C-alpha cells in the first residue's frame, strides 16, 4: 500500500471542499472496497477523508411518505429497518443477497453505490484495462468474459456494475442527494448516477470531483410484490451473474393477461449500471420472454456470456411466478 494522509471530515461541506481541493483525495466510508483496491495499488489516494463521523447514518421519513436514507447507513441496518422490510421489500432482499454479514455490517449506502467493477482484469495490474488506466486497452475483450456485461457496454469496456442494492434502488426510482464542493446541493435520479462506459470507462458516475453523497431518498411506497432473485456461481458471497429486481402487482386473476396488473423490473449483472427499460414493463403482462427481449434489445454478448440473456428471461419468469403466487 502506498503512504497516504488521513483526516476526519468536520461537515459534509468541509468534506466536499477538501476532496475537491486536495490532490489525490478520496472519501472513505466502510472501506470494504476502497481498502482492497489500495492494497492492490489499483487505487492510490494520497489523502483519505473519513466521512464516518458526519452523522449521515439515520433513516427518516420524508414529508411525502417516502424514506431518506443517510449515506452512512450500514447495509445491515438498512436491510433490517422495519419500514424498509414492510414497504420496500425489494431493497431489503437485494441487500441481504450481497456480500456477507460481516461486510454488510460495515458497508454503507453511498459506498455500495460507488463500489468499482469486479471485472477480473481490472483487479490485475499486469493486464491492460481502460478503466484502471485510460487508453491502455481492454483485456476482457477477447479474454474471459463469463461474468461480464452483455448490454450498455462499449468497445472500450464491457464490465458490469456489481451492486445488488443499486438494482433495487433503480426499480424503486430512488434519488441520490449530494453536497458539491461549492457547498451547494443537488438531487440526482438514480437512473442518471452511473454512466455508460463509451470511450471513457474510467468516468463511472456523473458526480463531480469532491461531490459527496449525503443521502438516498425513496419515493412513497408503491405496494406490489417486491422480489429480488440473484443467480450466482455459489449460494453466498458471490456477485450476480444475473439478478432481477421487480415490483409486481398481480391482477387477482381477472385482468385477462397472465395474472400481472402492472410491474417494474431492473436487471443486475448484465450492464455497467442497473439496467431498466421502462418501456419494456408494459409487456410484463405478455410474460418474461417478451419483456426480456425488449429489456435486452441491442445486447452484444460474447460467446462466453450469451447465456446471460436466457438466464435473465428464466429468472424473470421465476420472479413473475412467485409474484402471482
Ligand atoms: C468479498 C466481497 C464480496 C462482496 N459481495 C458483494 C455482493 O455480492 N453484492 C454487492 O452488491 N456488493 C458486494 N460487495 C461489495 C460491497 O457491497 C462494497 O464493498 C460496499 O458496499 C462498499 O461500501 P463501503 O462503505 O465499504 O465503501 P468504501 O470502500 O468506503 O468506498 C467505496 C467508494 O465510494 C466512495 N464513497 C464512499 N462514501 C461516499 C460518499 N458518501 N460520497 C461519495 N463517495 C463516497 C469512496 O471514495 C470509494 O471510492 C462485496 C465486497 C467484498 C469485499
Ligand atoms: S472490461 Fe472494463 S474493467 Fe474489464 S478490462 Fe476491459 S476496460 Fe478494464
UniProtKB/TrEMBL annotation:
Q: Which UniProt keywords apply?
A: FAD, Flavoprotein
Pfam families this protein is in?
A: CO_deh_flav_C, FAD_binding_5
Database matches in SUPFAM superfamilies: CO dehydrogenase flavoprotein C-terminal domain-like, FAD-binding/transporter-associated domain-like
**Domain of life, source organism:** Bacteria
What molecular function terms (GO) are annotated for this protein?
A: FAD binding; oxidoreductase activity
Where's the FAD-binding PCMH-type domain? Answer: 1-223
Question: What InterPro entries has UniProt attached to this entry?
Answer: CO_DH_flav_C (IPR005107), CO_DH_flav_C_dom_sf (IPR036683), Diverse_Substr_Oxidored (IPR051312), FAD-bd_PCMH (IPR016166), FAD-bd_PCMH-like_sf (IPR036318), FAD-bd_PCMH_sub1 (IPR016167), FAD-bd_PCMH_sub2 (IPR016169), Mopterin_DH_FAD-bd (IPR002346)
Q: What is this protein called?
A: Xanthine dehydrogenase YagS FAD-binding subunit
Where does this protein come from, organism-wise? Answer: Nitrospirillum amazonense
Q: What is the lineage of its organism?
A: Bacteria, Pseudomonadati, Pseudomonadota, Alphaproteobacteria, Rhodospirillales
Amino acid at each position: 500500500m502506498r503512504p497516504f494522509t488521513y483526516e476526519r471530515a468536520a461537515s459534509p461541506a468541509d468534506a466536499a471542499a477538501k476532496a475537491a481541493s486536495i490532490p489525490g483525495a478520496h472519501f472513505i466510508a466502510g472501506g470494504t472496497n476502497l481498502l482492497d483496491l489500495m492494497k492492490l495499488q489499483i487505487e492510490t489516494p494520497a489523502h483519505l477523508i473519513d466521512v464516518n463521523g458526519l452523522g449521515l447514518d439515520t433513516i427518516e421519513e420524508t414529508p411525502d411518505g417516502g424514506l431518506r436514507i443517510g449515506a452512512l447507513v450500514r447495509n445491515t441496518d438498512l436491510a433490517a429497518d422495519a419500514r424498509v422490510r414492510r414497504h420496500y421489500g425489494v431493497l431489503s432482499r437485494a441487500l441481504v443477497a450481497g456480500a456477507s454479514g460481516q461486510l454488510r455490517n460495515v458497508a454503507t449506502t453511498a459506498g455500495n453505490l460507488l463500489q468499482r467493477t469486479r471485472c477480473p482484469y481490472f483487479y490485475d495490474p499486469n493486464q491492460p484495462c481502460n478503466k484502471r488506466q485510460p487508453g491502455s486497452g481492454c483485456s476482457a475483450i477477447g479474454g474471459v468474459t463469463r461474468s461480464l456485461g452483455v448490454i450498455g457496454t462499449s468497445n472500450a469496456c464491457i464490465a458490469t456494475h456489481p451492486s445488488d442494492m443499486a438494482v433495487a434502488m433503480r426499480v424503486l426510482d430512488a434519488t441520490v442527494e449530494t453536497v458539491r464542493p461549492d457547498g451547494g446541493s443537488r438531487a440526482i435520479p438514480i437512473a442518471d448516477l452511473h454512466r455508460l462506459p463509451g470511450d471513457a470507462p474510467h468516468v463511472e458516475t456523473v458526480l463531480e470531483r469532491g461531490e459527496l453523497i449525503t443521502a438516498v431518498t425513496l419515493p412513497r411506497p408503491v405496494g406490489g410484490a417486491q422480489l429480488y432473485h440473484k443467480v450466482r456461481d455459489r449460494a453466498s458471497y458471490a456477485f450476480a451473474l444475473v439478478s432481477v429486481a421487480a415490483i409486481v402487482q398481480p391482477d387477482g386473476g381477472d385482468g385477462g393477461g397472465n395474472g400481472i396488473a402492472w410491474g417494474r423490473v431492473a436487471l443486475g449483472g448484465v450492464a455497467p449500471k442497473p439496467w431498466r427499460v421502462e418501456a419494456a414493463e408494459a409487456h410484463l403482462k405478455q410474460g418474461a420472454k417478451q419483456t426480456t427481449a425488449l429489456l435486452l434489445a441491442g445486447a452484444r454478448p460474447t460467446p462466453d456470456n450469451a447465456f446471460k440473456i436466457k438466464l435473465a428471461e428464466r429468472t424473470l419468469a421465476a420472479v413473475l411466478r412467485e409474484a402471482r403466487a
